[in-house]
């Protein structure tokens, strides 16, 4: 009997998780990427953050996915901690939608939903209809999984040991909270845990207090996903994950002494136990959010003290040029503003290069993450500055101004490519750190020498542009052949060490890729120097 129950439960849970994944994917595709964009924009006011968090989670059917997305936004500098906390509060509300759907017990419609969903998904020529079919298919599989679990659990109504365990969750709610948290942490889905509790309630295998304690535990267990996602991210991103943990744990601890009163309130909302469980989930999360929302500033300050430290702060967007004012700005002044913006972009790229250097030499994952943050800013600046210069080139310019604009367009491209090669180095560094790859002392010495030379040349190249310094540009160009020769020499040295068994093969691949990227950064630095000399390539 136990084997059949276990297999039925595993299969049903698998169908449920697969169904919710398929349904979420279909819903996300039907909405498009607009949801992410809206989430970034409409979260400046806490209540809007809560609403958007609830809506996004209701669509993608996963509070964990929303929270991980928010951690990513914070890590990229697109959201503040306060904005992130408000979205997470909303995500906790949005995830209750799944439980409410499950409580309707629509298992009789599972197979028709699967059939119709497959027809729409496979045979429709319209993209939106296909996505709706995919969502419908997932909906059907979800409820098929629920039906499978319900059937599998029926024999447990006559199995005293299981009944005793379930009753213990009612007598000792803390045990139910721990069990719910552990189970959710393992399967990475609070919706699945809550839905399973609803199934247990439908079979009268758990009482109200036991069900509520399991649901409270699932709210705690779901924070594990965001905690894992925050590993190696910025301080603010880690604060976001910790805020999620503290909020959910704090809510459970606040409600725990009042479970008796809470049960009485929940009983007034419905007559069936499964619906009462779903309502308890919703009431808990809504109440928890309303409780913390007025004190969100204090909560954010508290989390900042729990996770101390300062984050890398880089001003995003344009600083020296105004896209709207280009038509009324004299070309000579517009060129000056564009040059300042390009130099700012180059300095960000230089800082990124230093992070890549530090990350590699010191096995510092924090520096590796900062490279990614800066690269996103560099890419944004490249697009904005290129757009500005393209519009400027369409105006009536003198021959000298036209040449300057063309040179600046080349410079923007070269600086962006420096950022790309720096990102490549940081990704290679990540592999080195994660796989704990060893490097010989001679290899590290060679890389240190090449890193420092390339950093010096790039700094001199953009400084030459900033000051229109041809002498400094010539100094950069003197090193053009030196870097190429260094790359060839180090490559040959490495091959010799590899043949002698001095170097670890995987480390050797990373070594070769890094010196190749360094050589390319040197090439782009030379291109920038040529621009100053008026003979760009």
| DSSP summary, beta strand count | 0
Largest sheet: none
Global outline: elongated
Low-confidence stretches: none
* Radius of gyration, in angstroms, nearest whole number: 29 Å
Instruction: Indicate the percent of residues in helices.
Output: over 70%
Number of domains: 2
How many individual helices?
Answer: 24
**SSE run:** HHHHHHHHHHHHHHHHHHHHHHHH
Question: What is the CA-CA span between the terminal residues?
Answer: 77 Å
Strand content: under 5%
Q: Which oligomerization state do the chains in this entry correspond to?
A: single chain
> Average pLDDT, to the nearest integer?
82
Give the helix/strand class: mainly alpha
Verbal overview:
- The chain is mainly alpha-helical and 537 residues long.
- Helices cover 81% and strands 0% of the residues.
- The chain has helices at residues 2-31, 34-41, 46-60, 63-75, 81-94, 96-103, 110-123, 127-153, 160-171, 173-187, 190-202, 208-221, 223-229, 235-255, 259-267, 273-292, 296-306, 331-362, 365-393, 399-434, 441-467, 470-478, 480-499, 505-533.
- The protein is elongated, with a radius of gyration of 29 Å.
- The model has no long low-confidence stretch (mean pLDDT 82).
Q: TL;DR?
A:
The protein has 537 residues and is mainly alpha-helical.
């Amino acid at each position: 009997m136990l084997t059949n129950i276990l297999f039925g439960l595993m299969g049903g849970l698998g169908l449920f998780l697969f169904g919710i994944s398929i349904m979420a994917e279909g819903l996300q595709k039907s909405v498009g990427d607009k949801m992410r964009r809206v989430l970034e924009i409409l979260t400046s006011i806490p209540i809007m953050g809560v609403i958007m968090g609830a809506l996004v989670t209701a669509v993608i059917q996963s509070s964990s996915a929303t929270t991980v997305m928010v951690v990513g936004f914070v890590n990229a500098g697109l959201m503040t901690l306060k904005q992130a906390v408000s979205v997470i509060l909303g995500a906790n509300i949005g995830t209750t939608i799944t439980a409410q759907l499950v409580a309707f017990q629509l298992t009789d419609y599972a197979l028709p939903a699967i059939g119709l969903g497959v027809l729409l998904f496979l045979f429709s020529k319209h993209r939106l209809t296909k996505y709706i079919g995919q969502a419908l298919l997932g909906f059907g599989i979800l409820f098929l999984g629920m039906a499978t679990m319900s059937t599998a659990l029926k024999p447990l109504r006559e199995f005293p040991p299981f009944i005793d365990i379930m009753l213990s969750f009612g007598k000792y709610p803390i045990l139910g909270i721990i069990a719910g948290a552990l189970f959710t942490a393992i399967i990475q889905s609070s919706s699945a845990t809550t839905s399973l509790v609803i199934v247990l309630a439908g079979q009268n295998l758990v009482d109200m207090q036991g069900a509520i304690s399991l649901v409270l535990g699932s709210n705690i267990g779901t924070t594990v996903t965001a905690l894992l996602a925050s590993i190696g991210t910025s301080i603010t991103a880690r604060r976001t994950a910790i805020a999620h943990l503290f909020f959910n744990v704090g809510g459970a601890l606040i409600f725990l002494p009042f479970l008796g009163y809470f049960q009485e309130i929940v009983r007034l909302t419905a007559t069936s136990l499964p619906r009462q469980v779903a309502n308890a989930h919703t009431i808990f999360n809504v109440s928890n959010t309303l409780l913390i929302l007025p004190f969100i500033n204090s909560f954010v300050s508290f989390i900042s003290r729990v996770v101390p430290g300062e984050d890398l702060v880089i001003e995003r967007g344009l600083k020296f040029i105004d896209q709207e004012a280009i038509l009324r700005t004299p070309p000579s002044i517009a060129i000056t503003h564009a040059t300042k913006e390009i130099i700012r972009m180059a300095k960000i790229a230089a800082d990124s290069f230093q992070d890549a250097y530090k990350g590699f030499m010191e096995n510092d994952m924090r520096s590796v993450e900062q490279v990614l943050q800066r690269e996103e800013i560099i890419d944004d600046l490249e697009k904005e500055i290129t757009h500005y210069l393209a519009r400027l080139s369409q105006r009536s310019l003198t021959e000298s101004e036209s040449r300057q604009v063309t040179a600046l367009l080349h410079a923007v491209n070269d600086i962006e490519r420096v950022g790309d090669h720096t990102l490549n180095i940081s990704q290679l560094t990540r592999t080195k750190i994660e796989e704990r790859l060893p490097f010989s002392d001679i290899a590290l010495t060679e890389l240190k020498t090449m890193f420092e030379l390339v950093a010096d040349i790039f700094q001199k190249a953009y400084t030459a542009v900033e000051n229109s310094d041809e002498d400094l540009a010539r100094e950069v160009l003197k090193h053009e052949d030196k870097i190429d020769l260094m790359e060839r020499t180090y490559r040959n040295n490495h091959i010799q060490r590899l043949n002698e068994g001095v170097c670890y093969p995987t480390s050797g691949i990373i070594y070769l890729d890094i010196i190749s990227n360094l050589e390319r950064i040197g090439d782009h630095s030379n291109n920038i120097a040529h621009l100053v000399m008026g003979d760009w390539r």
